[in-house]
Amino acid sequence: MVEQDLIQRTLVIFKPDAVQRGIVGEILERFERVGLKIVATKMINPSEKSLYEHYEEIGHVTARRGQDALDNVMRYMSQGPVIAMVFEGVEAIEVVRKIVGPTEPKAADMGTIRGDYSHISFGYADSKHIGIPNLIHASADETDAKAEIAHWFSDNEIYTYTNLNEKYLR
Length: 170
Fold this sequence. Notes:
By secondary structure, this protein is of the alpha+beta class. The chain is 48% helix and 16% strand. It is built from 10 helices and 4 strands; from the N terminus they run βααβαααβαααβαα. It has a 4-stranded antiparallel β-sheet with strand order 2-3-1-4, with helices on both faces. It is globular.
């Protein structure tokens, strides 16, 4: 494996609860602090069609958690704008997943974004028929990252540049 193969891009979405709680900057700082580079960003109110494509056609939520979970996440993600970002770095997908923590906040360790800023369980969210407020979406793997980035960003919205971190962290 050549060094360039280890440089990855991954999608992160700051969900409506992160935006509405006013903690996007705090969370973003964690990604920047480890040396990940922002190569794309936008704030958007995603359409129902766009959310369906992301969560069902790419993410297969129904197969993993059932139709109710898909309906709940669709309602939750429609509650306000989201901020979509693409980060780039050495093994960025795994690094971002480690920083974010597991999907279920209750299971997330302290020190992760979900462990530090949320605590709700799947059971509670399901009993209330709500999407689980877990602040962030992060691509699960390289296949998802490529599909999700292409879904949220066109090629001309993704930037190539060199930042100072690359000198020290690559």
